[in-house]
Design brief:
Layout (H helix, E strand, L loop, with lengths): L6 H12 L26 E3 L5 E3 L3 H15 L2 H11 L27 H17 L2 H22 L6 E3 L4 E5 L5 E4 L11 E9 L7 E6 L5 E5 L8 E5 L7 E4 L10 E8 L2 E6 L2 E6 L6 H4 L4 E4 L11 E9 L5 H6 L16 E3 L8 E2 L9 E5 L16 H6 L13 H19 L2 H18 L4 H8 L10 H12 L2 H8 L4 H8 L10 H18 L2 H14 L33 H17 L3 H17 L34 H9 L8 E4 L4 E4 L5 E5 L4 E6 L7 E8 L2 E9 L8 E4 L2 E2 L8 E9 L4 E5 L4 E6 L2 E9 L2 E6 L7 E2 L16 E2 L7 E3 L2 E5 L8 E2 L2 E3 L3 E4 L2 E6 L9 H6 L7 H17 L5 H13 L5
Parallel strand pairs: 20-24, 32-37
Antiparallel strand pairs: 1-19, 2-21, 3-4, 4-15, 5-14, 5-18, 6-11, 6-15, 7-8, 7-14, 8-9, 9-10, 11-12, 12-13, 15-16, 17-18, 19-20, 21-22, 22-23, 23-28, 24-27, 25-26, 25-28, 29-30, 30-31, 30-37, 31-35, 31-36, 33-34, 34-35, 38-39
Helix pairs in contact: 1-13, 3-5, 4-5, 4-9, 4-19, 5-9, 9-10, 9-12, 10-13, 12-13, 12-15, 14-16, 15-16, 15-17, 16-17, 17-18, 21-22
């Protein structure tokens, strides 16, 4: 009996048996038929496209314009540099952005390519939102270049011609991992030899080889352009580094200038020449090429050790079976070898005059044709596209522990590229982008489908190295266009079962996990539910959301400390300079949005407003910059923290998601019911919606959150549907709606949606009043550590001190419970207030002021309406004070209602022995005599 197929293989077999193509596309350039992502049938709500929602003037428009200008002005050839280099193509002199998007960044640049994907998404969203052709042109430039890159990677490397010392030369672009392989007979076992090369180094990496002949790191002969001291070094050994006989230069070779290097060995004497001058001589040498025996690795530009590949240009490489004289070496300085007194090399002579192909002719007469090769061979599949070799993907398959200097989240980077390509296709209808995206998924499937399930589970469970971002969501999105069964099967190969199963069972295992490695997994799981109907995917996502919000959420909507989660419910205990990684908020917004499409629980949009209006807006600095997007990585919540808008070395993940956030602020302002029966207004933001199916427009006019409400004006034709207006959870009183001046009946409930049903006509006006009030939110693990909100806006104290400040807020609290009367407004600065000489400002303002997001609540005495009772404010063992318990009963409709609350609370505390009878009476009397803001 044949063994049963594993569950994974059964799923794949079923997919292949049932899937049929839903969309065909051209593989070449040009435009494909217009395509949009079809909304899943499981979604009871539908989003509008970015083009359907225009952003009006306000806090979002100002921030967005800064990013639009950045996207318009940044040279995309800089982003393409690392891709072109990897393919051995000319980079046109472009300089990579650096940081994480370059070879010199953190962890050897092992994440390069990710930022280019983010940038493509940003440009796509910018074009979709504005229709400005400049963004489409930039997208097409990038797609064209990436198409060329993939085509080059599919073939053996080809020579990249450059201007040489004497004529044409061969350039080896840094990051290409290319080298020249010479036939094994090149040294011919000669005991006496001269090797000569013209080189122009373009990078100063140590130990890059001009040539290296050897079998391994034991038997070899090399010439390095730079040793550890930065000067040329020749060495020969039959016993590894410890047995080297060497020659060291005296000065570094200049970058971007031609230098001539030559080595002669005759008898016991070895001599190193630089630009015709003898710079080193060793008269005690016992080794020469004949000592090495037969050699398998005969390379120009590559090392037998794990050293960088030479970056620069070669013009002429010659090998003679004799030691040239000093005069002959001098003659080579101003002549090609053929025209010098030395003549061509007798063992090998390469002029590098070739301008096409991947081979170099030998002019010595021995016919030793050299071949241009890649250190890593080439892609395993024609769909491969990356800014580095396939080696990180290969390494991950056998890796058991993280080491980001070797493998840094290759599938995460693949996701960013894939997402950028898909977004580019959807924005511009450029079929080349779709072909590149589809090819990437074909390549990933060809790799991952061959691996055992246990291997995949191990890979995805490795911190950092196994991170794959939101790749599942993007693959499923692509599947809805291509209809390829392999693509849906690929998405399921990323299942991390231990995480999915735990969350589906509502078992919280998040303590110690890297936050942003895991949040986007759940957005992908929802899309898998949409595609397969497998309920555990959606259940896991819902439960996971509830493990983070509010149990691991800071007031601004962010999560994580030093990128990781700690125990559930620990907030104060995790506050640091590295709290609230910006990517986490970006991904939680995506997850909340997608959950809301399935289940219209207002808590998801309450969170969306919190994180969007605070952390996401506040993560973008309020100034222009052509070089950087100016977005935070971490937002430290420690006292006196100053936000860093140019984090780490630059081009980080959070700068990438920050670019995306700033060009899609409007994506969740409105949703529509799948059957068109209702329009959801989720956010109050100055926007104009075009609902083409209904033939209407809805224009929101507001300066929210500087204005406490919004006006919606209908245009176009007439349409019947239910208008559902979100009542924020913090809007506990006073939410009112009028239509054409008349009050709408009904009782709005905080944390719900208020519905207005009618046939809407052009000219109809809906006014929504949303009174704000100041309130505090307490850290879950320390009720005395609090953060201040006014409506949706987190207000932070601006002060350079580095200890938690202490503030009291009950001193002039209103009958409604609003704490704002205790603060004083700052003239001419909306949403700015002062308290005890300290200014409070909106978190969303992207400044470099030192801020205090959290403070210590200090209410030492019982005060009502600014009248001090003279009584110390007592507290229970859990930290709850008398005033806390009194004001927990707010809002109070009248002063008498408040006084009644004071009396009953005092009686309870006196009975419990927490307050003396006389002091209790003073408290009640003070409450009776005080005046209050209504």
């Amino acid at each position: 009996m044949a063994p049963a197929l594993p569950r994974r293989r059964l799923l794949q077999a079923a997919l292949f048996a049932t899937a049929t193509p839903a969309f065909s596309y051209a593989a070449g350039g040009g435009s494909a038929a217009a395509a949009t992502l079809p909304a899943p049938s499981a979604w009871t709500l539908r989003p509008f496209e970015l083009k359907d929602v225009k952003v009006g003037q306000g806090v979002f428009a100002a921030k967005r314009q800064l990013m639009l200008d950045h996207g318009r002005g940044y040279d995309v050839n800089r982003l393409l540099q690392v891709f072109r280099a990897n393919a051995g193509l000319s980079t046109g002199g472009a300089v990579a952005p650096g940081g994480w998007e370059g070879l010199d960044g953190e962890a050897n640049g092992n994440l390069r390519g990710h930022y280019t994907g983010h940038f493509l998404t940003m440009l796509s969203q910018a074009y979709a939102s504005t229709g400005d052709q400049v963004y489409a042109d930039r997208i097409r430039t990038m797609i064209g270049a990436l198409t060329d890159v993939r085509a080059a990677l599919r073939k053996d490397p080809a020579v990249l011609g450059a201007t040489g010392k004497f004529g044409t030369a061969a350039e080896n672009v840094r990051g290409s991992y290319q080298y020249v392989s010479l036939p094994a007979a090149v040294l011919n076992g000669s005991a006496t030899i001269t090797l000569s090369a013209w080189v122009k180094p373009t990078h100063d990496a140590n130990w890059t080889r001009v040539f290296d002949f050897g079998n391994n790191n034991t038997r070899y002969m090399y010439l390095a352009a730079r040793n550890a001291s930065g000067v040329p070094r020749f060495a020969i050994s039959t016993n590894g580094p410890g047995g080297e006989q060497g020659l060291n230069g005296t000065a570094a070779l200049p970058l971007n200038q031609w230098s001539h290097l030559a080595v002669t060995i005759s008898g016991s004497t070895g001599t190193l020449y630089v630009n015709g001058a003898s710079v080193a001589q060793n008269t005690s040498m016992t080794l020469n090429p004949s000592s090495l025996g037969a050699l398998t690795n005969n390379w120009l530009g590559r090392s037998n050790f794990d050293d960088p590949v030479f970056a620069g240009v070669y013009d002429e490489f010659n090998v003679w079976s004799r030691a040239l004289t000093a005069a002959e070496i001098t003659s080579l300085q101003s002549n090609r070898a053929a025209a010098s007194s030395a003549g061509r090399g007798t063992l090998a002579s390469y002029t590098f005059d070739e301008t096409t192909g991947g081979t170099f002719a030998d002019a010595s007469g021995r016919g030793l044709t050299a071949t241009l090769r890649r250190t890593w061979g080439g892609p395993s599949h024609v769909g491969f596209l990356a800014a580095y070799p396939e080696t990180q993907f290969i390494d991950l398959e056998s890796r058991t522990s993280p080491d980001y200097t070797k493998v840094w989240a290759p599938y995460y980077t693949a996701h960013k590229i894939l997402k950028g390509l898909l977004d580019a296709y959807l924005a511009t209808d450029d079929a080349r982008a779709l072909d590149l995206a589809s090819g990437m998924c074909d390549w990933m499937y060809s790799r991952l489908s061959k691996l055992p399930g246990a291997t995949l589970q191990r890979m995805w469970g490795i911190f950092s190295s196994g991170e794959f971002g939101g790749i599942v969501e993007t693959i499923v999105d692509l599947y809805t266009i291509t209809g390829k069964a392999e693509h849906l099967a690929l998405a399921r190969l990323f299942d991390l079962d231990k995480l999915i199963d735990a969350c589906a069972a509502n078992t919280d295992t998040l303590d110690g996990l890297h936050a942003n490695q895991h949040i986007p997994i759940f957005t992908g799981l929802i899309r898998l539910y949409d595609a397969t109907g497998e309920a555990r995917y959606l259940t896991a996502a819902k439960n996971f959301w509830g493990m983070v919000v509010p149990h691991r959420m800071y007031g601004i909507g962010g999560t994580s400390t030093a990128e990781f989660w700690k125990a559930r419910g620990v907030i104060a205990g995790t506050i640091s300079d590295t709290t609230a990684e910006s990517c986490c908020a970006y991904n939680l917004l995506k997850l909340s949005r997608m959950l809301f499409f399935h289940e219209q629980d207002p808590k998801y949009m309450d969170y969306y407003e919190r994180a969007l209006y605070n952390q996401v807006l506040g993560s973008k600095q309020d100034r222009a910059d052509g070089e950087k997007p100016l977005v935070t990585y971490f937002i430290g919540l420690t006292p006196g923290h100053v936000r860093d808008y140019t984090p780490k070395q630059g081009t980080t993940c959070c700068e990438g998601t920050g670019m995306e956030s700033a060009t899609k602020y409007q994506d969740s302002v409105y949703f529509k019911k799948a059957d068109g029966s209702a329009l959801y207004v989720n956010l109050y933001s100055p926007t104009t919606l075009t609902w083409s199916e209904k033939g209407i427009t809805v224009t929101q006019t507001t300066d929210y959150p500087r204005e406490q409400g919004s006006t919606l004006t209908f245009g176009g034709g007439s349409a019947a549907f239910e208008l559902r207006l979100r009542v924020p959870s913090w809007a506990t009183s006073g939410f009112r709606v009028t239509v054409n001046g008349g009050a709408v009946s009904g009782t709005p409930v905080a944390g719900s949606y208020f519905a207005v049903s009618r046939t809407w006509q052009s000219g109809d006006v809906v006014k929504v009043a949303i009174p704000f009030r100041a309130r505090v939110e307490k850290a879950l693990d320390d009720s005395g550590l609090q953060t201040l909100f006014y409506g949706p806006v987190n207000l932070v104290a601006r002060n350079s001190g580095t200890s938690y400040m202490q503030f009291g807020l009950y001193r002039n609290a209103a009958l409604s419970g609003d704490l704002l009367p205790t603060l004083s407004p700052v003239s001419g600065k909306p949403l700015h207030y002062t308290l005890n000489g300290t200014e409070f400002a909106p978190f969303f303002e992207g400044t470099e002021d030192p801020t205090h997001a959290y403070f210590r609540r200090s209410e030492p005495r019982v005060v009502f309406g600014t009248t001090d009772s003279g009584v110390t404010n007592p507290a229970k063992s859990d930290g709850t004070t008398l005033l806390d318990e009194i004001w927990a009963g707010a809002p109070f409709g009248t002063k008498a209602t408040l006084v009644s609350r004071v009396q009953s609370t005092v009686n309870s505390w006196v009975s419990a022995g927490l307050l003396g009878q006389a002091d209790g009476q003073k408290v009640v009397t003070t409450a009776q005599n005080a005046s209050y803001v209504s």
